[in-house]
Amino acid sequence: MTIETIPFPLPPSADSSKFRAFGREVKGVDPGALQATQFQEIEKLLYKHSALLFRNVDLTPEQQYTLVKAFDPTCESYGHGNNKTGKTKESILHPYLKTIPRVPQVQLIGNGIVHDHEGIPEAQLKHASHRTFHKSQVSEEDETSGVTRFYRWHMDAALYDLPPPKVTALYGISVPEGDKQICRYDDGTGDELEVPLGTTAFVSGKTMFDILPPELKSLAVRSRVKYAPHPFIWMAPAHAKSSGLGLETEGLETPLDNLPHWEKSKIQIYPVLWKNPITGDLHLQVHPCGACELFVDPLPRTEDGSPQGGLYPEGAHLVDLKTVRNLIYDMQRPGIAPSLVYPHDWHEKDLMLFHNRGVMHSVVGHFKPGKPRVFHQCNLAASDEPLGPSIQDILRWA
Ligand SMILES: [Fe+2]
Question: Where are the membrane-spanning stretches (predicted)?
């Protein structure tokens, strides 16, 4: 049987011209039992299209781990480290990830109480809510009428010690049905987006870069982001912006001296733009909540040595959190405009495989008590660091 692909079903809110390459539903293969040649094709499709959807899939945690591992065969550790999220209670991720005991690379996530699930006698799952994270909240009245927010835009990555996973597999096992919700940005733009209940929202990091004006493209191609040590503990006391895209600067982050032991050598510094290994495209990939400093390289000299325009022409090392966050926000906010978001409408047995170094995603929505939501998530701390822009990319965009 040959592999067949069809474009994602886009909602009316989406600008289809920006989704020509993004997202393919894949038919004709069992992602839990891929032959080597099939996997090679799937791997190419993933890096080309950023996200692949398989429907009506039966997938054990072992098969999910095997599938994700095929993209980076020497990896064995979950993206945040095996059995770490459950034990690190100070981490902002702690309430949301429950490790499957026999396959610690796969996490149980969702909402509601689950009994006797893959070796877990009972788990109280919590769908991440903006109420516990954003500085401002949607009123209870609005929430009851179906208004919600993006929880937190991110890539799946520990951002400390462990390189960011290449691929994440999200598998929907139990998916409560319900009315659509309105995801409000509440950032003064009036932007909002109709979303399926409990959607996972995706945006393309390539589009995020492609649509920037020249001066921000120049900044992006010359910049590297330094992440805080133990960023998910560091950020835990802080509050997020209403769009879920980064943090407000209120001085609430955990002081570095109060963090668990950390080592300078394990701090992560990544380029703002990550080069796609198959297409060579540049994807703007920054976890805005964990970022704490920016290094900007100087503009390349023109042939006659005269200075060029652009931001920070002589380069800079920016350490003021507010400045760093504002610049990152300026680079990322255009890319989460409603017309650029793909909000996936989950069905039971959907398997979404996404290029974690090429897209950003967010949990969205608010559930009323009822049927539990049960998902399995798997990603692996990578064997290498993401590749930044090439010299040619820098000369082209700087
Ligand atoms: Fe995630």
Answer: none
